[in-house]
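Whether sequence alone determines local backbone shape is best considered at the level of individual chains. The sequence in question and its structure tokens are set out directly beneath this paragraph.

***
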Amino acid sequence: MTEIRAYVDSDAEAVKWLIVELQAYEREYDPDRAEASAAFTEWYLSRLLDDVREGQGIFLVAEEDHVVRGYIVGHIDEDVENRMVYFRIADVVVSESHRGQGIGTMLMRTVEDFARAQGYKRLYIGVLAASRDVHRLYKELGYQDYVIVMKKEL
């Protein structure tokens, strides 16, 4: 049985491993993504924790059989052009071995409930354009395409 609970410091090594998996997955679609060295994962985790602290956010892990199988991070962000504050999911990761078992959906729903309880009316999440499976999952969960960010190599 999967339990969703708050991140604690003793989860750090498991979360770092999930960051490695996330970077490897995203590098399939974007080879410019940073390689997940030990220094990178340490920095990335520190950055997530800072975002949660500064953005009144939430950092949850999905634990099964006393092993962290996934995590999600969300925090307050601002849409300056629309003059609104909203809740943003910064990261959601499920270990490769446990994808497709509903863990990501459980994490997403828990953060949605948290944001709703805090009074937020809108949630945002980003997805790489080529990551069609993830994009489809988000659409199945009720998310709609909103902004397209384009890039050009110089």
Observations:
- The chain has one domain: 2-140.
- The longest helix spans residues 12-29.
